[in-house]
């Protein structure tokens, strides 16, 4: 009996409401007191194509989506055909008798197959055909044997958030009930995978983008300008929705160039500003990124990656933009690049992004990807760490009055020159994208030029000192050390635990602050590691390349995946075992 | 009393002798002085170009941005601190070529700022290529056999897309220009001034004489700047007629006025400390 | 005789039931078929968006470009091989947001191509944010408290900046739309059609009923599409009046006609072998 | 006596016509049968600021601008003050008595100082004050003692090219004559630096951008779209001017995004197309660069660098964009990046760029910089190598008729899929920026995705095989091996020769094809080199970083310069001697 420990998946056509019902299921599990991690797959189409949503449930934290699937709800034939291989030997398959069948021999005898007329049940309950997904929710609860209460709750919540008529919720609850009852009737023995509702420990459920948006709001970011682009768009939605409540200015601009331009203008004025996009939009921002570097304006740019090149696979995941981000924009200037590895880190690191941006008057790029941006994870609010706000050096009007010869770009020991903000009496200067002298005037003298390059690079040294070095996690004296970045963290955490259970000692280093690069720490890790493998969601091993550039070192292995899907822990386990 | 010197930096202007920028520069400063706006209350965002080299010559909050992007930066400035007077300043290449998208969309937004475009019908800092406002047939370094395209119409484009103040000035008429810039700065909303500017070094076609034969003052032509149809008509005349003055001015809520978060104080004045998101997070349960 | 099937690929369309794209698609194919243009003579360049997912559904030279950039790619295609029929196809977001600069400048150039914009007043593929043509006040995912900006006026912008064919169609009127697209393809010069498109999934404001109360046929209103003033007037009406049909059509030399190198044959047909530059190099002595 | 072996420099205010008179002097030296290399410095202003032009003259090839200066023409005080340190001990200084003076002790007794009333002489000759530069030309010829004939020739040529009235040339020739006569009268002994006119060996004088533009025209590039940006703009000017004669289509587009978009559209149709820009414009092109990579369209992009970040120093030189170019655009796709090192290479490699672009259906970036783009060098036309044109695989209509199931992106051994061009009967397909299958349809299946990534990367392997490996040049058994890229080649050639004369054996490796990287060759060079130094015109050592990423190797030394100026051979000699 795996009480409260199962992986649920629903699949069907785009337009079947897979994403919304999946999110409702996740939420219901959270409300049942469980830990949750979910993951959805859908093509870049509004209709057509195949959608799935899977939710891994456990009383203990889940760090990544888990396989095999224990309960599969197949709303059409494709959902049967595509996912039958992902099932546990004792899985439950609920398939749609209205449009699919499960042929003989398709499932194992140990698996339980239940045909359900999802659409018929929806119609019978007074709902419309589209409520097949709500029927599926009820049916899933039927399998789990935990009553209908939570299903009802999330259905009602869903329709009230969407501001739908109360009657809509009523018929949908009825539809869910029909599904529930149908399964209950069919089920010969009690389900092997069951849910026991536990007292709610106050957990919440957040996608990485949610956590990041709220971390930013908490950090005082009140200016957000962006142009929609999957998988970054939901940050725009959250900011836009929260604007009146938190006194935010949110601008959906005409393009990404304007988005970053606005954010830079706001940052220049002393406001904490941010923009968010994906690779294609970031490409359009690169010229302005360099402007921020040169003019020394704090700005935070979120780049949530998706597989490319070019338009690529907009709704899928990958970690393919690292090298682009590290050297984006012409010429050379220091920049901070960080990549949170999970929901908690997304919340926390975005706050430090604002501190660093202001302290070093520098652009900070926060790298996300579709997997971390869109997957929901249950978190304990107390694990959402708040960082002390540090606003960097800004002069006061009094100081300006005292020393009238204000030099905006004064050359200091750490390269940081105190800012005067527009509106301050006595602080007038040129904020200049041309090479400039300390005053900000355009300057082309050889010595001054070299000096200002050096001044800016002094900031890099200072950043490097401030940025926390990554830490080894997992077993000590490990047989293998994994090095990774970003969302791959979760699958690695899961894999390390699974391998531990199988008697293998593995540890890992997540490099969260990718630039400036923690070269000394990494060298040290290599020195002490038996073997090193780099794990990345791309084809060419971008972190491996950057690491080699920074340290001269090469890992023993590269574990790469570039099919648009995240690493799954069980895959990683299999791959790692081959390497041991 | 403020005067030009209060807005003048220690950097010596580098424009060519006879350059129209040498007139736009004092006109802008006089406008600010006459309006009594202190230099530190002005943020002026420049493009890249001959005109935008002016970023070094003004003593105020000057931002020398990148080519085509003065408006986005200026918008960010205005929204972050709407107590400032914000002026975006660009050449015709930056405004209507590289940056035309921002121009059209800023008109739509009616954000409260002044947009001064130094329209010398040419890319001058890069030594003389065609600009969107160069006249059809003009031979330039990038079009040595004559421009094929019809020239861009900034005035009409602004009017039909929501700018609430649309004017044209002429660099050779400093008093007229000063007055227009003053009114533009005073206007609440997006105030756009296309300034016909002489470039004696590279533009040998659109000379002082050429303009003198074509410009006329709207104020003397009985133009009603509150009348949309008249404004569109004035803006869509053939290029033998170049109106000077305010083509169009109406009063509409500004972009900032549409944002509740800005109703009490400029954004930059809001404290970032002790923002409490606890209750909001609880809704994710 | 050509028919729709000749332009239909083996990829099943993925638009939502009731989507206006399901009407624009056959209308475009019928227009091509009725004009007898063989599929391999058509290059159709798409943006990124719901509408542009159509790139997979057409059987012709289909180029699924990037967001906002259908026009530049289409221009390159036309100039490289002007014997092709070139159609650029975009959503309103790509056309008037990300790619508005190319729109304005393509109008100016009067390059001979057709530009079909699927104007559903929304960013639909990204699930419902405001587009430049969304009506003021509209609540969308990116503007949950209502759009502040005035909506962009594509028709008037095109007319005043040099497009020689400017029309508006409505996705719910397939015959009318087919006729307009046919005329647009036949037109020599830049032919722009703004297609009012239903998006039943995300746009719950600009519905079939909403449009029905506003659209009217120019042909029935005695409109003279050769008259510039009438065209501008028709294009600048308040949004309670949405004209359908050809607002403006004139004949002017196209961009390609202005390029001597294209007068004899398409560029792609010129041999690259044995180009002799010896004499030219000698002038560098 | 240094007959035909001297370095001449003129300096004055912007607006003094320094650039035009410098080019005339260069051309006159060429016509005198000499080899020439020139270099101009000027700020990003039309007026104001200080301009200089220097010309190194020798009977034997000159590979970079040389110092010290033997003849300085100082048209204003700044030109005296700034350049007095650059002079040879026996230099001639012609200064403008109308606005400058040479104070006591400023020059060495061994130097010859001649005050000339340049403006007065101009006016007296019936010319205008601005003809002071022509007076300076004549005066320079007076020093060189080679008669006035060539000065007269280039003056006349200059004004006829500018389509000026014949009378203008006449008074300017008179002004030059006045300068000439004035100097002749003043000169006590015959000049140490003299010019003997030799029979013209048919050399021509080209800037790197000229050579590149002509190489492209020769290679059949007949589509060029661009937006002006220093230092790439002159390519646009050359193409525009030559359009009717060579049947080119040249489009000055509204921005760089359109420039590359048009070039991609044209390349897709089967035309050889190119665009050219500098770093800021390239930033705007990055998104479309990825489109070319994904859609597999041949296109050539010239990126002529200038110092940054951001607007930086538009009219100065640097090699700061390498890393940006190598990883520009989101995700991963193969690309060819090459950096010619001199005028001859600019002519030759641009031709190979078109071959490679078409053979591999790939974007090719050709990196230039202000120094190579704008400096003129005399070349022997027979050293301008023509490359055989290879157009890559394109299907024919007959082939399409024979095999009706055309697959645009068919997966082949080398990853190259024969193209069908728009207009070909039977070749219809989707040229798709989405991930796609062989047919071109949008595709999101995991296996297909990975396969198409692999297919594209097979092309990289094929490119790497085809691209010529760099070769060691200079002495064998060298004490030190220099590794460099791009325009730095010239200063290194000069320095190696100077060091050879001083008894030092130095050799060097110019990596012209930077990507795919010639890792094996470079490893081999490291293996055999005593010591390795990387020489680059940037702050962070970008080639060094790329090399380390590709090979794990680090040079013993990095010789870096980032003040906006190119390396000068004498500086390099000094630096290298410290390392030996
Ligand atoms: C992205 C980018 N592209 C091109 C340039 C080169 N550039 C500098 S100024 C300029 C145009 C200048 O024309 P305009 O804006 O009309 O200003 P003007 O010099 O005429 O005052 C150009 C193309 C640049 N700096 N950045
Ligand atoms: C550079 C870039 N920015 C953003 C996106 C994300 N994106 C894809 S389609 C789209 C807008 C779709 O709106 P529209 O053009 O009106 O087409 P529709 O889906 O409404 O047909 C956006 C913003 C992108 N693909 N590329
Ligand atoms: S080139 Fe023209 S615009 Fe530029 S400074 Fe000289 S006159 Fe003025
Ligand atoms: S979302 Fe709207 S535009 Fe997109 S396919 Fe559905 S109905 Fe059509
Ligand atoms: Mg201009
Ligand atoms: Mg749309």
Please tell me about this protein's structure.
The complex is a heterotetramer, with 2 copies of chain A (580 residues) and 2 copies of chain B (285 residues). By secondary structure, chain A is α/β, with parallel strands linked by helices. Chain A has 4 domains: 2-201, Pyruvate-ferredoxin oxidoreductase, PFOR, domain III (Pyruvate-ferredoxin Oxidoreductase, domain 3, 3-Layer(aba) Sandwich); 207-383, Thiamin diphosphate (ThDP)-binding fold, Pyr/PP domains (Rossmann fold, 3-Layer(aba) Sandwich), CATH 3.40.50; 397-466, no CATH class; 472-579, Rossmann fold (3-Layer(aba) Sandwich), CATH 3.40.50.920. Chain A is built from 19 helices and 21 strands. In chain A, strands 9-8-10-11-13-12-19 form a 7-stranded mixed sheet, with helices on both faces. Chain A has a 6-stranded mixed sheet with strand order 2-3-1-4-5-6, with helices on both faces. The mean pLDDT of chain B is 97. In chain B, the strands form 2 sheets. Chain B has an 8-stranded mixed sheet, sandwiched between helices. Chain B has a two-stranded antiparallel sheet with strand order 5-6. With 285 residues, chain B is an alpha/beta fold. Chain B has one domain: Thiamin diphosphate (ThDP)-binding fold, Pyr/PP domains (Rossmann fold, 3-Layer(aba) Sandwich), CATH 3.40.50. Chain B has helices at residues 21-34, 70-80, 92-98, 100-109, 154-160, 174-186, 208-212, 228-235, 278-282; strands spanning 42-46, 61-64, 85-91, 113-119, 122-123, 129-130, 165-170, 190-196, 215-217, 242-249. The chains are: A alpha/beta (580), B alpha/beta (285). Chains A and D meet through α10, α11, α15 and α18 of A and α10, α11, α15 and α18 of D. One magnesium ion is lined by residues 49, 91-93, 120, 122-124, 131 of chain B.
């Amino acid at each position: 009996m795996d009480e409260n420990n199962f992986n649920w998946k629903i699949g069907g056509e785009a337009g079947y409401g897979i994403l919304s019902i999946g999110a409702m299921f996740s939420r219901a599990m959270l409300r049942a007191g469980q830990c949750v991690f979910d993951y959805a797959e859908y093509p870049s189409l509004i209709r057509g194509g195949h959608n799935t949503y899977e939710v891994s449930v456990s009383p203990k934290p889940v760090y990544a989506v888990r396989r095999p699937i224990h309960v599969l709800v197949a709303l059409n034939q494709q959902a049967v055909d595509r996912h039958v291989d992902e099932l546990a030997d004792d899985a439950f398959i609920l398939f749609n008798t209205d449009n699919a069948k499960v042929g003989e021999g398709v499932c194992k005898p140990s698996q339980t197959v239940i045909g359900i007329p999802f659409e018929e049940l929806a119609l019978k309950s007074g709902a419309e055909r589209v409520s097949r997904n709500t029927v599926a929710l009820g049916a899933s609860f039927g399998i789990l044997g935990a009553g209908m209460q939570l299903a009802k709750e999330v259905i009602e919540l869903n329709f009230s958030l969407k501001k739908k008529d109360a009657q809509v919720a009523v018929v949908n609850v009825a539809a869910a009930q029909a599904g529930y009852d149908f399964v209950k009737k069919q089920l010969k023995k009690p389900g092997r995978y069951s849910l026991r509702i536990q007292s709610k420990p106050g957990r919440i459920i957040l996608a990485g983008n949610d956590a990041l948006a709220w971390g930013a709001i908490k950090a005082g970011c009140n200016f957000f300008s962006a142009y929609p682009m999957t998988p970054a768009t939901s940050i725009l939605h959250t900011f836009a929705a929260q604007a009146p409540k938190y006194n935010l200015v949110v601008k959906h601009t005409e393009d990404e160039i304007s988005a970053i331009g606005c954010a830079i203008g706001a940052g220049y004025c002393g406001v904490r500003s941010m923009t968010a996009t994906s690779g294609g939009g970031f490409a359009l921002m690169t010229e302005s990124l360099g402007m921020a570097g040169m003019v020394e304006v704090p700005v935070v740019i979120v780049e949530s990656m998706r597989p490319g090149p070019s338009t690529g696979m907009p709704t899928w995941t990958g970690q393919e933009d690292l090298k682009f981000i590290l050297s984006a924009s012409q010429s050379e200037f220091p920049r901070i690049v960080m990549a949170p590895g999970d929901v908690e880190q997304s919340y926390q690191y975005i706050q430090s992004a604002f501190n660093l941006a202001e302290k070093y008057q520098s652009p900070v790029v926060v790298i996300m990807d579709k997997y971390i941006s869109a997957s929901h994870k249950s978190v304990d609010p107390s694990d959402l760490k708040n960082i002390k706000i540090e606003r960097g050096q800004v002069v006061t009007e009094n100081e300006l009055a005292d020393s009238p010869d204000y030099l905006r770009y004064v050359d200091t020991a750490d390269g940081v020159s105190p800012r005067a903000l527009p509106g301050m009496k006595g602080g007038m200067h040129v904020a200049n994208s041309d090479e400039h002298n300390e005053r900000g005037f355009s300057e082309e003298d050889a010595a001054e030029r070299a000096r200002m390059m050096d001044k800016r690079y002094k900031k890099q040294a200072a950043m490097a000192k401030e940025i926390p070095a990554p830490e080894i996690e997992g077993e000590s004296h490990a047989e293998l050390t994994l090095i990774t970045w970003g969302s791959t963290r979760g699958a690695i955490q899961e894999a390390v635990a699974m391998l531990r259970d199988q008697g293998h000692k593995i540890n890992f280093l997540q490099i969260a602050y990718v630039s400036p690069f923690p070269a000394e720490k990494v060298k040290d890790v290599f020195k002490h590691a038996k073997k090193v493998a780099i794990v990345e969601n791309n084809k060419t091993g971008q972190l491996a390349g950057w690491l080699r550039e920074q340290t001269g070192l090469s890992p023993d292995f590269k574990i790469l995946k570039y099919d648009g899907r995240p690493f799954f822990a069980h895959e990683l386990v299999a791959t790692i075992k081959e390497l041991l | 009393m403020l005067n030009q010197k209060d807005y003048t930096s220690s950097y010596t202007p580098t424009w060519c002798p006879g350059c129209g920028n040498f007139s736009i520069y004092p006109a802008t400063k006089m406008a600010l002085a006459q309006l009594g706006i202190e230099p530190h209350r002005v943020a002026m965002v420049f493009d890249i170009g001959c005109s935008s080299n002016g970023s070094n010559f003004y003593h105020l909050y000057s931002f020398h941005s990148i080519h085509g992007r003065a408006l986005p930066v200026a918008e960010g400035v205005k929204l972050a601190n709407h107590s400032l007077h914000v002026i975006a300043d660009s050449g015709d290449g930056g405004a209507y070529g590289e940056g035309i998208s921002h121009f059209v969309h800023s008109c739509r937004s009616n954000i409260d700022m002044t947009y001064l475009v130094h329209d010398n019908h040419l890319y001058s800092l890069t030594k003389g290529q065609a600009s969107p406002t160069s006249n059809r047939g003009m031979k330039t370094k990038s079009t040595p056999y004559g421009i094929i395209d019809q020239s861009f119409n900034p005035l009409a484009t602004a009017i039909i897309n929501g700018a609430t103040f649309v004017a044209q000035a002429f660099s050779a008429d400093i008093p007229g220009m000063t007055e227009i810039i003053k009114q533009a700065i005073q206007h609440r909303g997006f105030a756009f001034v296309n300034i016909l500017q002489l470039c004696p070094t590279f533009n040998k076609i659109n000379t002082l004489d050429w303009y003198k034969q074509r410009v006329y003052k709207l104020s003397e032509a009985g133009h009603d700047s509150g009348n949309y149809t008249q404004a569109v008509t004035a803006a869509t005349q053939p290029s033998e007629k170049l109106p000077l003055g305010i083509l169009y001015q109406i009063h509409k809520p500004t972009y900032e006025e549409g944002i509740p978060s800005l109703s009490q104080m400029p954004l930059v004045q809001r404290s970032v400390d002790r923002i409490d998101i606890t209750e909001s997070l609880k809704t994710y349960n």
